[in-house]
């Protein structure tokens, strides 16, 4: 019983990090109404940026957020402005332009292969990591300290994003554009600037998630693919466009992956995850918390 409690706690902690990685994906979908297939690759770029920031400067891994989050915001902002915006202009009468999905898939392959060419296929990890292997001992239970910090970061990020969308003028403009971009444009809101900002926020969130992963996860050019798959499952479970749903969906996946191996093989836990994904997709396509307007 003690092992199940310990695994449940660690599963919740890891699940909240999964939710953080998916949060940027659900923000971009909530506003642009397209699925960003390059989101995992943006997470990978953030991991490499965090890795080299810590390696070259020697700062604490979590202080890298100060550099990584703004850098990823501008990366996402100008990626949307330069590459994706022309498609929205060309297909302005299309509610959900499928061409954007094709383009983001191309960005995914470009980013992964450019990283492979520049840094090679080697797995990297922080050598002088103060958080490496740290465990919080509670009685006879051991809780991962890096994952605990990651969970706290995920909660703070979710609350910060929620406050931004609810309380700031830009947040309200983003919500208005996500609900009806034509009406928002008639009210003087520049929808293309809103798309740039939303994409930037999604990329910055991926950068924050990258910083939480670097202290205990290997970095390599295709690492984003692993989180891309989980990210899509999480946003479907929680509801496309729902920030809280992303966290809950991530925690569900984390619990299944952590507690499941106590009763079955890891292969079966993966089957349960995909099975749950299909069930939610058929029974409640909008997800657990998905609504017509999530914000």
Question: How would you characterize the overall build of this protein?
Answer:
With 295 residues, the chain is an all-alpha fold. Helix 3 runs antiparallel to helix 8 (191-213). It has one domain (2-223). A hairpin with a 2-residue loop joins strand 1 and strand 2. A two-stranded antiparallel ribbon has the order 1-2. The protein contains eleven helices and two strands; from the N terminus they run H-H-H-H-E-E-H-H-H-H-H-H-H. It has helices spanning 2-32, 39-57, 65-90, 98-119, 145-167, 169-179, 181-186, 191-213, 223-238, 243-259, 266-283, and strands at residues 135-138, 141-144. The model has no long low-confidence stretch (mean pLDDT 87). It is 72% helix and 3% strand. The chain is globular and about 60 Å long.
Could you provide a short overview of the structure?
The protein has helices at residues 2-32, 39-57, 65-90, 98-119, 145-167, 169-179, 181-186, 191-213, 223-238, 243-259, 266-283; strands at 135-138, 141-144. With 295 residues, the protein is mainly alpha-helical. It has one domain (2-223).
Morphology call: globular
**In terms of structural class, how would the helical and strand content be classed?**
mainly alpha
How many strands, which pairing sense, and closed or not: the largest β-sheet? 2 strands, antiparallel
Q: Please list the strands of the largest sheet in the order they lie side by side.
A: 1-2
Count up the domains.
Answer: 1
| Tally of helical segments | 11
Low-pLDDT regions: none
Distance, first to last CA: 40 Å
Instruction: From the alpha carbons, calculate the radius of gyration and give it in angstroms.
Output: 19 Å
The multimeric state of the shown protein is single chain
Instruction: Give average pLDDT, whole number.
Output: 87
What letter string, H or E per element, gives the SSE order? Answer: HHHHEEHHHHHHH
Number of strand elements: 2
């Amino acid at each position: 019983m003690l092992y199940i409690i310990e695994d449940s706690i660690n599963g919740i902690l890891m699940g909240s990090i999964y939710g953080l990685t998916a949060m940027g994906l659900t923000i971009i979908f909530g506003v642009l109404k397209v699925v960003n297939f390059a989101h995992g690759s943006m997470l990978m770029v953030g991991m490499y940026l965090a890795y080299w920031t810590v390696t070259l400067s020697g700062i604490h891994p979590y202080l890298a957020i100060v550099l990584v989050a703004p850098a990823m915001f501008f990366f996402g902002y100008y990626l949307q402005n330069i590459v994706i915006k022309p498609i929205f202009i060309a297909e302005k009468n299309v509610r959900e332009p499928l061409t954007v999905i094709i383009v983001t898939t191309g960005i995914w392959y470009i980013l992964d292969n450019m990283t492979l060419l520049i840094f090679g296929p080697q797995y990297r990890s922080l050598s002088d990591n103060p958080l490496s292997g740290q465990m919080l001992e509670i009685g006879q239970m051991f809780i991962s300290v890096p994952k605990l910090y990651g969970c706290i970061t995920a909660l703070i990020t979710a609350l910060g994003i929620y406050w931004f969308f609810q309380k700031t003028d830009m947040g309200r403009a983003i919500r208005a554009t996500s609900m009806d971009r034509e009406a928002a444009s008639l009210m003087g809101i520049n929808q293309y600037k809103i798309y740039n900002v939303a994409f930037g926020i999604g990329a910055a969130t991926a950068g924050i998630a990258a910083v939480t992963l670097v202290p205990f996860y290997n970095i390599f050019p295709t690492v984003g693919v692993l989180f891309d798959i989980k990210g899509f499952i999480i946003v479907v479970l929680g509801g496309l466009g729902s920030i809280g749903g992303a966290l809950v969906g991530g925690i569900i996946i984390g619990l299944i992956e952590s507690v499941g191996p106590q009763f079955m093989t890891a292969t079966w836990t993966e089957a349960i995850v995909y099975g749950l994904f299909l069930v939610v997709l058929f029974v409640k396509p909008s997800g657990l918390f998905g609504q017509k307007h999530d914000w």
